[in-house]
Design goal:
This protein has 3 helices and 5 strands, in the order βαβαβαββ. With 137 residues, it is an alpha+beta fold. The protein has one domain: 6-pyruvoyl tetrahydropterin synthase/QueD (Tetrahydropterin Synthase, Chain A, 2-Layer Sandwich), CATH 3.30.479.10. A 5-stranded mixed β-sheet has the order 3-1-2-4-5. The site of nickel (II) ion has 4 residues, from strand 2.
């Protein structure tokens, strides 16, 4: 088994806010991340595909194809967007890095033509990142 990683970056605005709670309760849970006037991040995404090498090409997966799939099904939905308002795959979700990571996994999992999706890692800040491998506890 070999693992191929494709990295992509995007920037986006969001607000951490649960609409069933009051402004005050939201502020208590999310602090300045619940600022009603939004804030943004420069996200770094790493998509890992695992599988065997195709002897005809020597590739696990053509990374140009993986790049184009990530662009079409993820980046075009999030880059320079407001994740609360504009991103269909996050509809009715609080756009935490956790939910964005799982949303990205769901966008990609059935679209990988060679090997299989192994993990999605999303860095929201220099110090925080989340990783999803499609498993539940
Ligand atoms: Ni944030």
């Amino acid at each position: 088994m070999i693992y191929a990683t494709r990295r992509a970056t995007f920037n986006a605005a969001h607000r951490l806010y649960n609409p069933v709670l009051s402004e005050e309760e939201n502020y208590k849970i999310f602090g300045k991340c619940s600022n009603p006037n939004w804030h943004g991040h420069n996200y770094v995404l790493e998509v890992v595909v695992a599988g065997d090498i195709d002897p005809a090409t020597g590739y696990l997966i053509d990374l140009k194809i993986l790049r184009d799939i990530i662009e079409e099904h993820v980046i075009s939905h999030v880059d320079h967007k407001n994740l609360n308002i504009e991103t269909e795959f996050l509809r009715n979700k609080i756009p935490t890095a956790e939910n964005i990571t799982i949303g990205i996994w769901n966008q990609l999992v059935n679209r990988i033509p060679k090997g299989k999706l192994y993990s999605v890692k999303l860095c929201e800040t220099e110090n925080n990142y989340f990783e999803y491998k499609g498993e539940t506890i």
